[in-house]
Amino acid sequence: GAGVSQSPSNKVTEKGKDVELRCDPISGHTALYWYRQSLGQGLEFLIYFQGNSAPDKSGLPSDRFSAERTGGSVSTLTIQRTQQEDSAVYLCASSPSDRVYNTGELFFGEGSRLTVL
Amino acid sequence: AQSVTQLGSHVSVSEGALVLLRCNYSSSVPPYLFWYVQYPNQGLQLLLKYTTGATLVKGINGFEAEFKKSETSFHLTKPSAHMSDAAEYFCAVSEGIKAAGNKLTFGGGTRVLVKP
Residues with Cβ < 8 Å from B6, sequence gap 6 or more? Predict the structure, then answer.
């Protein structure tokens, strides 16, 4: 597709369950970012991928959170043993890394809204 | 470390009035600065950005922002508000284009309400 695609768009789960959120970046974008947007909060950085490796995972809030990226494309953010405070919108973004095309801008998906009951 | 402060989490303006959203940043290196807009149930869309060169930058939908290094500010303005401007606006800073990625640090956001 033309833009960043995220699924599911909405997820309701029970406390203690595991969830997986998926991000399909813009074709050719080698950099991929996950952010979290909690109610009334700004955007909190979680993790950054360059290709399949994650040089910066400093924003992951706990070891219940993990992410992977395969084939330099699709990424999955996994939250284990979900807690109510994990309820938020999880946004994925991508950008090209090639200096010719990279203008510093991130291109965002529409997000996955997670509600933990 | 970088940080961004947006003054006012909510702003209410009348249709046709000036929109002014304030953003101050801190950065140890010359910053790249961005304003993004988020309409309800949508992702973030770039309004405008400053990288280098002219300090007054124009974006989509009639918005503009001016980079003032001495004030470490990047305030967003629009001369005349339209009902369609009702949204949440985020200011962001990065350290520019780096091999380690363009991680953006965002402010807390300002929600704009436009009154008829």
Answer: A42, B21, B22, B23, B89, B90, B91, B107, B108, B109, B110
